[in-house]
UniProtKB/TrEMBL annotation:
GO terms for biological process: purine nucleoside catabolic process. The lineage of its organism: Eukaryota, Viridiplantae, Streptophyta, Embryophyta, Tracheophyta. This is Inosine/uridine-preferring nucleoside hydrolase domain-containing protein. InterPro entries: Inosine/uridine_hydrolase_dom, IUNH. It comes from Zizania palustris (Northern wild rice). Residues 37-143 form the Inosine/uridine-preferring nucleoside hydrolase domain.
Length: 154
């Protein structure tokens, strides 16, 4: 996980590494309390056919997170990106340049520079567009919103 817990179940970005996705020019940081087994059981017992279907296909994802991250839950990167678009007040944001490493041992690593530094020469950061990046997330509210939407009657 990137970040440290701060305040009422929110996480604040540390350093310059961001994990997330980019949508309509806005990158979102989606690091928060994982969606846990108890949430999965609620979905399984839901009347929503979509929630029940999701439970069937989430087994592999839960197993991956258990093996890779030693956690009993999954991170909701993609759903949190949608939540940011639907209710941006559940996150706070900053702006900066995002670059993704494409070669070497750091291939796939996303790097975020939110400094207002002016370089004396042209660099790989020069003249790049900025994006809005979420730096804190109200995790309980995001999980609650996702759960409510998934358990709505069909």
């Amino acid at each position: 996980m990137i970040g440290e817990k701060s305040g009422a179940h929110q996480y604040k970005l540390q350093g310059s590494v961001v994990e997330g996705g980019v949508m309509d020019g806005s990158a979102t940081l989606t690091v928060f309390d994982p969606y846990v087994d108890a949430d999965m059981k609620k979905l399984e017992q839901s009347d929503s056919k979509y929630a029940r279907y999701l439970c069937k296909i989430l087994g592999l994802y839960f197993n991956y997170h258990k093996d890779a991250y030693f956690t009993k839950g999954v991170y909701l990167h993609d759903p949190a990106t949608i939540v940011a678009a639907v209710n941006p007040s559940l996150m706070t944001y900053t702006e900066g340049v995002v670059r993704v490493q494409t070669v070497g041992i750091t291939r796939g690593l996303t790097v975020f520079d939110n400094t207002k530094k002016r370089y004396g020469e042209i660099t790989a950061w020069s003249h790049k567009p900025t994006v809005k990046v979420a730096v804190t997330v109200d995790a309980p509210a995001v999980v609650e919103m996702i759960m409510q939407r998934l358990m709505m009657n069909d």
